[in-house]
Design brief:
Radius of gyration: 19 Å
Structural class: alpha/beta
Number of strands: 26
Strand order of the largest sheet: 3-6-9-12-15-20-23-25-26
CATH architecture: 3 Solenoid
Shape: flat
CATH topology: UDP N-Acetylglucosamine Acyltransferase, domain 1
Order of helices and strands: EHHHHEEEEEEEEEEEEEEEEEEEEEEEEE
């Protein structure tokens, strides 16, 4: 299972993704800033309320940069006040947490140096004993109010160095999944059907992405919005996935295509 029964990161084979066909033509960030005002927009992006912002920022100021086990220990005690954690959160130095009240860490989940998590009301859920490594970005700030935005990662998974996961359409990653360094999982797309307007002003679409249990996504691969990678599948390094990858297959290339079926022992 994933983080818990109600918020599992994985889907059963063939189960439909959430958020299929969601389109938002709400204003881009610059227009939203102008409408709400820059100060209000900034605080809303950082925290779930002014009171929580006042609590969170001093903790970050004094504790965020302390290295080594001393820093991990101090943050383990203090950060339980501002995020949800099954046990003591294991957070390295210079980790940036935006809207930490919407972040849930499973037992012994680990956030490495300089990880950036930007949550939203639906949240970021990281399962027990899952590692998110140096420089990775998990980002779902949802100022357009998309209904399925969020990131759910199951147990015992590994998010390699400098991965980028954008969860506006919802990203669900299962148990024991391996994302190699530099993988991008992009559950959002820009609309560009109106030639009279800049793309940035036309809104976005968001269908969601699913990576099922036991899959391996090779270094530098890109998963585009709307795809599902089946259980035990392997995506080759540098591939661009634009269509579903069936369970226990190997897909390579740009765009990725299935080149072989994997046997029960994981050998080609």
């Amino acid at each position: 299972m994933g983080v818990n029964d109600k918020r599992t990161a994985s889907l059963k084979p063939g189960e439909p993704r959430q958020g299929v066909g969601v389109v938002s033509r709400q204003p881009a960030a610059a227009e939203t800033v102008a409408r709400r005002g820059p100060l209000r927009y900034y605080v809303e992006a950082q925290s779930t309320g002014l009171g929580r912002y006042v609590l969170e920022q001093p903790l970050f100021f004094f504790l965020q940069g302390i290295p080594s086990l001393i820093g991990i220990g101090l943050r383990a005690l203090a950060y339980r006040l501002i995020l949800q954690s099954d046990g003591l959160p294991l957070v390295e130095d210079h980790v940036r947490l935006c809207q930490p009240a919407n972040i849930h860490l499973g037992r012994r989940a680990y956030l490495d140096h300089s990880v950036y998590l930007h949550a939203c009301p639906q949240g970021i859920f990281i399962g027990a004993e899952t590692f998110v490594m140096h420089g990775s970005v998990l980002h779902v700030y949802n100022f357009r109010d998309l209904p399925n935005a969020g990131i759910w990662i199951g147990r015992n998974s590994y998010i390699g160095e400098r991965c980028v996961i954008r969860g506006q359409g919802g990203v669900r990653i299962g148990d024991s999944v391996l994302l190699a360094p530099g993988v991008q999982v992009l559950a959002v797309n820009h609309l560009f059907d109106d030639p009279s307007r800049p793309v940035i002003q036309q809104g976005i679409s968001a269908q969601g992405i699913v990576v099922e249990d036991g899959a391996w996504i090779g270094a530098g691969a890109i998963l585009l919005d709307g795809v599902q990678v089946g259980a035990g599948a392997v995506v080759g390094a540098g591939s661009v996935v634009t269509q579903d990858v069936p369970p226990r297959t190997l897909a390579v290339g740009a765009p990725a295509r299935v080149v072989r079926q994997l046997d029960a022992d994981g050998k080609p």
